[in-house]
Write a structure and sequence with these properties.
Blueprint lengths: L1 E6 L2 E7 L6 H7 L8 E6 L2 E3 L9 E7 L3 H22 L4 E8 L2 E7 L6 H17 L4 E6 H7 L4 H8 L5 E7 L2 E3 L16 E5 L2 E5 L16 H17 L4 H9 L3 H25 L6 E5 L6 H14 L3 E6 L28 H12 L4 E3 L2 E2 L4 E2 L4 E3 L5 E6 L17 E7 L14 H17 L3 H18 L9 E4 L5 H13 L9 H12 L16 H4 L7
Parallel strand pairs: 1-5, 13-19, 13-20, 14-19, 20-21
Antiparallel strand pairs: 1-2, 3-4, 3-5, 6-7, 7-12, 8-9, 9-10, 11-12, 15-18, 16-17
Helix pairs in contact: 2-3, 8-9, 11-12, 11-13, 13-14
């Protein structure tokens, strides 16, 4: 059989095999060398474990931890090792993988006593020992009925299995532990040498390599504000009695979802009102409100709702977007691939932005430019504005928190808001739903309705968008005066109705096929939620249509 080997995105070689072979053995046979740890393989664009048997001609592409898919596999595998280490060290522990935090994920584990710093050190040493043992993660391909038998005493897993979209399930056995993940794991623990644990009471952060630095663990950067907002929204989840997807699905089946929607939206409104009141209290400083956040975080709707809440306090708003200040296309910087880098702060007219904000705060009139995205040029005549004493300037854009844009404005005159969709609902206690997954699903839906891009194009561009966010957005999030979580606990049940059909249009011939299938599998765990009860001013309406705001 003829096997084509893709290495680093390019056809490396064609080889012939007389019998069945696994990608792992093929890699050794052909003496393939990779810069980073290879963790899985794509066979004809379908993601498989490295020990999957190849029994016919195909195209093989090796997946390493310098890719989004490879890093996810590495993380899930390392979480399984963490699970075993904790089970061996503590009596009947409970483990909850909560959410991403910086270059790792925040985990809480409960036993007879609260976790201590010494406990974290013990867990780390035990994990290092288990990794050195290089034990196998044994894949078991089971029917759903068979899978139930392995989780008889685990109510969380049993509830999730009820909603599993597949009749055949891949479960992994590791020593005496059994679990399943939304994708394959590495063949054995020896692949997982790069990790760290950081004690962040009452839990810890399990730290990984990153896509930017897949060969090492970076310097730890505390994110207290981000952790605080996650904790706040976890309390909201407790108010709603929702922690996992199964509990949300049960609310839908019991006809209780309308209350969940109403409470979720009310909590959003309450938070926006609190932010507006704080701005009102600072109004005598002559402040400018700067709003930033990653793609598909709902910044536009947040700004419109904030403006309404500011009116309730007696303040009107002058709102403008950084998009108005793009340089003409020929002046836009290019990235390493020679493409226009619209994510770069240098794609904006920084001097003009600073001058306009400065002049507006002084009561002077300015002419706000209008950018023509089709022609890639700034229009000759914009709109002239000046602000009155009871008006607040609101400037929105991904670079909003970067002081390079407003160097002449004192910090006391800036009120910075960071907006992101920080998912608080997980599949179960080990399988988290990442913030990035929520945002890409939002973006797929929005691009379908409003921007003329199909799901394949959106997924293809996502890595570039994420790289820009890591460089220009996330590094400034801790400088915010306040963070707003735009995620809604029920939203994936709504988005699936639109996203799944779009994702299913991506054929197996596409390089984006495996990612599309993973997102379909994730969304399939959710019971569909109808749109009828979603308020017209909801942030979700920015993506699914039907908003009473103009965009």
């Amino acid at each position: 059989m003829e096997i084509k080997i893709i290495k680093n995105g390019n056809l490396s070689k064609i080889c012939n095999c007389d019998k069945e072979i696994t990608p792992l053995l093929l890699m050794k046979k052909e003496r393939l060398q990779f810069q980073y740890v290879v963790v899985a393989v794509k066979i004809d664009n379908i993601l498989y474990p490295l020990d999957h048997i190849i029994d016919s001609g195909c195209t093989v592409e090796y997946v390493h931890i310098g890719t989004r898919e490879g890093l996810r596999i590495y993380q899930n595998s390392l979480i399984f090792v963490f699970m075993r280490a904790v089970n061996e060290l503590f009596e009947r522990p409970k483990i909850q993988v909560k959410h991403s935090l910086g270059d790792g994920c925040y985990i809480e584990t409960f036993s007879r006593f609260l976790l201590t710093k010494d406990d974290v050190e013990k867990i780390k040493k035990r994990m290092e020992h288990l990794i050195a043992e290089d034990e196998t993660f044994e894949p078991l391909y089971l029917s759903k009925r068979q899978a139930y038998q392995y989780f008889e005493e685990n109510e969380i897993k049993l509830q999730l299995l009820k909603y599993c979209p597949k009749n055949n399930i891949l479960i992994y056995k590791y020593a005496e532990l059994y679990d399943f993940f939304n994708g394959p794991l590495v063949p054995s623990t020896g692949y997982l040498k790069l990790f760290d644990l950081k004690y962040v009471p009452p839990g810890l952060i399990l730290r990984f390599p990153t896509v930017d630095y897949p060969d090492r663990i970076g310097t730890f950067r505390p994110l207290p504000n981000l952790l605080k907002i996650f904790t706040e929204y976890e309390r909201w989840g407790n108010i709603l009695n929702l922690s996992y997807v199964a509990s949300l699905n049960q609310k839908v089946e019991n006809f209780e979802i309308n209350e969940i929607i109403q409470v979720s939206e009310a909590l959003h409104e309450k938070k926006i009102a609190e932010i507006a009141e704080e701005i009102h209290q600072k109004r005598n400083s002559g402040i400018v409100v700067l709003i930033s956040g990653p793609s598909a975080s709902g910044k536009t709707t947040f700004v419109k709702r904030l403006a309404i809440q500011l009116k309730v306090t007696g303040l009107s708003s002058f709102v403008t977007s950084l998009d108005n200040y793009f340089l003409d296309r020929e002046k836009t910087p290019r990235d390493e691939q020679g493409e226009y880098d619209f994510e770069s702060i240098n794609a904006l007219d920084k001097e003009l932005i600073n001058n306009h904000i400065e002049h507006l705060l002084e009561g002077k009139e300015v002419e706000i430019p209008k950018y023509n995205f089709r022609d890639g040029k700034r229009e000759e005549h914009g709109t002239k504005f000046h602000i009155s004493k009871d008006q607040i300037i609101i400037l929105e854009g991904i670079h909003g928190l970067n002081d390079v844009l407003t160097p002449s404005i004192k910090r006391k005159n800036k009120y910075k808001i960071y907006v992101s969709a920080l998912t608080q609902l997980n599949l179960d206690n080990l399988n988290r739903i990442s913030t990035s997954d929520t945002r890409i699903i939002r973006r797929i839906v929005r691009d379908t309705f409003f921007r003329g891009y199909d799901a394949e194009q959106t997924i293809k561009r996502w890595d570039s968008i994420r790289a820009g966010e890591r460089k220009f957005v996330f590094s400034f999030q801790e400088e915010a005066d306040v963070m707003f979580n735009s995620a809604l606990v029920y939203e994936l049940g709504v988005l699936k109705r639109i996203a799944i059909p779009e994702l299913m249009k991506i054929t197996q011939e596409s390089e984006q096929y495996s990612e599309a299938q993973r997102l379909i599998n994730l969304l399939s765990f959710f019971v569909t939620i109808p749109e009828i009860s979603i308020p017209r001013n909801s942030i979700l309406r920015e993506f699914i249509k039907g908003s009473n705001f103009d965009y």
